[in-house]
Amino acid sequence: MTPAFAILAILTISAAVAAMSLRNLIHCALAMAAAFGGIALIYLQLDAQFVGFAQILVYIGAVAILIVFATLLTRGGESSEKTAFSSTWLWGALVTGAVFALLGWAIRNSFASQAEPAPQVEATVKQIGDSLMTKYVLPLEVVGLLLTAALIGAVVIAMREERK
Amino acid sequence: MAETLDQIFVSLKQALLGYIPGPWQALASAVLSLLPIFVAFPTLFAITTLLERKGLGRIQNRYGPNRVGPFGLFQPAADGVKALTKEDVVPRAADRVVHFLAPVVLVIPVFLSFAVLPVGRNMVAVDMDAGLLFFFAVGAATELSVFMAGWSSRNKYALLGAMRAIAQMVSYEIPLILSAVGVVMVTGTLSPVKIVAAQSTYNGLLPDWFVFTPWGLVGFLIFMISAAAESNRSPFDLPEGESEIIAGYFIEYSGFKFALFFLAEYLGMFAISGLGITLFLGGWNAPLASLGWIPSWAWFFAKLLAIILVFIWIRGTVPRLRMDQLMNLAWKFMIPMVLVNLVGAAVWHFMHPSLSRWLVSSILVLGPYFWLGKALFEHKHLGPRTYRFAE
Fold first, then answer.
1. Taking CB atoms and an 8 Å limit, are B173 and A26 in contact across chains?
2. pLDDT, averaged across chain A
3. Is A68 on the interface with B (CB under 8 A)?
4. Do A53 and B133 touch (CB under 8 A)?
5. Chain mean position to CA B328
């Protein structure tokens, strides 16, 4: 574990914890944006430039903005009086621990962790683009169609209904 | 001689690096690459504030600042001292932490975006494979800080300004990025350095800049319109609209924090204009082969200043749009236009260089322009403007 990774991990995890535990909804959203940024920096530290920048562009530039907008338009972002912890936090912690243990066990015993680490390949943006346009063109088109349908659906829902 | 002048900053950096002991060289090289950005662009900002006030003064038939120094030349220094010495007022109801963080979070990505701009031959701070993507990614990060400023001030005008700003930035980001995609399709790279290199040849009459192709001209115009909207310049200055919401999202900022917002806004404009130059105006290339003796960085800054002057001119000329006009322009006109323009770029790329290529590409651009314009103005009944009170 390099120092850079340690710093980024602490930053990301503390931002994520803040996003879960802060009282004010807007503060939570901003902390989550910081966590997104931390993840993007981890990607960049792993030399995955494309994924890192796409993470910033999509998650900080769009998803965080969307969350903030939705919060403002629905309930005004007033801080709630209730405590951040639910009354059944003990059960929640137990379930979380069980899920985490199961996932950790599965990952440790998976084929991927048993296999030899693949030789490091330099994935340039050009290679990513090439494979997106040749090998993975059908999934890409399907995703594009899905997003277009979602966009049109949002417009239809938001459209003012004609008076009859 | 021309060669030395062209590479003077690069050789200066190499000479300075010679004095640094081995293990520190990587760090020193990074610092020496970034330092000029922190010197050159804030200086340009100071010059631009003066130019803008003088230019607007000329357009509005008055003098502009003329008290500090000869012709008011030292006005930026006076403004800077004023901003530094003003009291920093934070509203009592404001969210202090977010209120403090917002200008800081705004300035950092703006400075970061200069790192991938090639300002001259061999003069780019970070030559990145995905440089264009980096630029747009850090640009997207500024939206959140605008929201932070507007929300944390606990002021309804500030919040209104932030909502307007975000709606506008999100809408205009799409034509901005899509107009750059055309260039990426033709050059086949996301690296700004290679995009500039692809425009460095001359074909006798004109340089091979992308602005001199049908799709490139449309792309450039759409890019610059979106750039004006992204940097909240008039006629897209609704987020600030002094006559409606006073100053928008930074209404509750004073002193140096206000100056930071001001700085970030202008630096954002420089960065995005610099990207427009890189993508469409040949970057640091001279417009004629015979003018190649002028240093490359001088060309970059000359083009940048020209674009800034056009922005000032537009600000003095065009009235502010209304919110619905703003959204209609982005979603109903510019996005369809830029999507068709992508087809135009693809056709241009795959046809042989001939007159028919020009013809097909021009039709692909002009046809949608007239058709869209006709369709959008069909039921508007716009005639010549009539003056009821003023003659």
1. no
2. 82
3. yes
4. yes
5. 22
Q: How many CB pairs below 8 A link A and B?
A: 66
Which two structure tokens, joined as six digits, stand for B109?
């990505």
Cα–chain-centroid distance for residue B221? 13
Spatial separation of the C-alpha atoms in residues B53 and B312, rounded to whole Å: 9
Three-state SS sequence of B188-207: CCCCHHHHHHCCCCECCCCE
**Furthest CA-CA distance within chain B:** 76
Is B383 or A25 the better-scoring residue by pLDDT?
A25
Q: Which value, in Å, is the radius of gyration of the alpha carbons in chain A?
A: 21
Distance CA(B243)–CA(B240), nearest Å, equals 9
C-beta separation of B277 from B192 below 8 A: no
Q: Is A57 at the interface with chain B, CB within 8 A?
A: yes
Contact A57 B137 (CB under 8 A): yes
B133 shares contact with chain A (CB less than 8 Å): yes
Q: Are the C-beta atoms of B91 and B154 separated by less than 8 Å?
A: yes
Our CA angle for A31, A37, A40, nearest 5°, is 150
Whole-Å CA distances, A159 to A96, B166, B355, B380: 42, 21, 45, 20
ipTM of this predicted complex? 0.75
pLDDT of A146 higher than 90: yes
- Residue-level pLDDT at A77: 47
Chain B contact for A51 (CB, 8 A cutoff):
no
Residues of B in contact with A30 (CB under 8 A): 98, 144, 148
Run of H or E residues at B42: helix B25-59
**Per-residue tokens: A58:** 């999509």
Considering only the beta carbons, identify the residue of B98, B137, B170 that sits closest to A30.
B98
For chain B, residues with pLDDT lower than 70 are 1-2, 241, 381-382, 390-391
**Higher pLDDT residue, A141 or B96?**
A141
φ, ψ of residue B127 in degrees (nearest 5)? -85, 95
Task: Determine if the pTM surpasses 0.95.
Answer: no
Tens of pLDDT, residue by residue over B247-302, are 777 878 887 888 888 888 899 899 999 999 998 888 888 887 777 778 888 888 89
Instruction: Give contacts of A69 with chain B, Cβ < 8 Å.
Output: 163, 166
